[in-house]
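ZP: hey, is the 6-O-phosphoryl inosine monophosphate complex queued? I don't see it on the tracker
AM: it wasn't, my bad. submitting now with these inputs:
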Amino acid sequence: MKIDVLLGLQWGDEGKGKVVDVLTPRYDAVARFQGGPNAGHTLEFEGKKYVLRSIPSGIFQHGQINIIGNGVVLDPVLFRQEAEELEKSGVDLRSILRISKKVHLITPTHRLLDAANEAAKGGKKIGTTGKGIGPTYTDKISRNGVRLGDALHNFDEKYGSLREQHLARLASMGATPDEATLADLEEKWLDAVEYLKGFDIVDSEFLINDLLAQGKSVLCEGAQGTLLDIDFGSYPYVTSSNTISSGACSGLGVAPNKIGEVYGIFKAYCTRVGSGPFPTELFDATGKRIRDLGHEYGAVTGRERRCGWIDLVALRYAIMINGVTQLIMMKSDVLDEFDEIKACTAYRINGTVTDRFPYTIEEDIEPVYTTLPGWHTDMTKMQSEDEFPKEFKDYIDFLEKELATPITIVSIGPDRKQTIVRNRK
Ligand code: GDP
Ligand code: IMO
Ligand code: MG
């Protein structure tokens, strides 16, 4: 068996959580492979809404195994909050969740460093989620990190040494924490590490490869999006992990030839939260209308999401980098009332038109748009694609042609049920 990967093609918040939940019944296991509590994946069903940060979105279906893979970074305190809330709402998390020994732990001083790094950047700040993601992956790559498996061996020494390094760095940045505050944060954190140890901590690379060898299927859930990828995103305004499909190999210990379908998920328009360039961003009433109708506010930080038209230059690039085999279009209903819809098919840079995503999108880019008619139809209660209005079908056809990839699922509302699986041609 192969693993299928579902990941975001834009700047995150495409609706990954919703679709992973919808697809979970087709799979035996669901795994996260990168990112950490910077993610906020929203699921809605039976009148309830859940936001997941570090725990995979496959926990609400039929007892599938959910795996937090080695590529993830975990904050024990936030994990504990998330897990306790889920257990309160009746999820038997301990029986279905497995956590890799190799996940790196986010410490209280990682979060302080995240804040200090941002402050030091001033006007050039990334606009991070403040969860300590960058400093934790920095320590991983510079071989100083503390892994969950270390909590089982020699922990005090490893944590103590990392803590000293962090405090020295914070002091050099003029950001030494108040002693009492740090002591309080550490006490909670150490308690949460003990709590975390009560979960099933495993060698998840063996678990996943054993599942595949037994003919079981695995869905991998990406976090963030391709344009936030550390290598291919809008660097330096990116996150600190490989959010792309190859990240599933390194983040789970699965070989590239084991990847099957790659589901690329995108909104019918585009959003971004945090700083950095965004060629199709709208600063006018249309942008505000998309934000209002799409409730475009961050699931983790509550920040306003910046809104704009769909960017096909960036999407083509994301499809290429990820090897996307199927597309999933989200939030189509948000455009239900628009007279016309625009799609950016190329960039004009210094007078030259290109359909290739450039090295940097920080320079002056003028999007070249194709305008399509709106459908003026409430699609939120539709049950099948046969009910779609003609203009919306034309929009889908246009996108499939431009992107040379089939759109197999269309989402028409936040609820699990507002999902239309299309017949494959
Ligand atoms: P993720 O991080 O990719 O899982 O996405 P988020 O959960 O951060 O953001 C997606 C938001 O859109 C959430 O509030 C979802 O409930 C909501 N959502 C998902 N799909 C749809 C849809 O098709 N239509 C509408 N109107 N909302 C949706
Ligand atoms: P999900 O999984 C949208 C953005 C932050 C910031 C940049 C770096 O819900 O789609 P970080 O805290 O990772 O160092 O921040 O990345 N960012 C996200 N934007 N969705 C996310 O996750 C994000 N995770 C990080 O806003 O611009
Ligand atoms: Mg999100």
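AM: back. The first helix runs from residue 16 to 23.
ZP: great, adding it to the tracker
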